[in-house]
Amino acid sequence: MKKFLISLLGLVSVAFGPQVISARPDSLSVVKKLSLEQALQIALSENASVKVADLEVQRTGYARKGSYAALFPQVDGSGSYQRTIKKQVMYMDFDMSKMMGGGASGAQGEAGAETQAAAPARSSSDGFEVGRWNTWSAGVSASMPLVNAQLWKSLKISDKDVELAVEKARGSRLETVTQVKKAYYTVLLAKEAFEVYKSVYENAVENLELTQKKYNAQRASELDLTRAKTAVANAVPNVYDAENSVELSLWQLKAVMGVALDENIDTEGALSDYADKMLTESVPDTGLEYNSTLRQLDIQARQLADAVRVQQYANLPSLALAFSYSLNAMTNDFNFSEYRWSPYSFVGLSLNIPIFAGGKRYHAIKAARLQAEELDIQRINTERQLQIAIRQYVGTMDTAIKSYASAGSAVETAAKAYKIAKQSYDVGRSTLTDLGDAQLALTQSQLGVAQAVYSYLNAKSDLEGTIGADFLDNTNQR
Question: In angstroms, rounded to a whole number, what is the distance separating the alpha carbons of residues 266 and 263?
Answer without folding.
Answer: 10
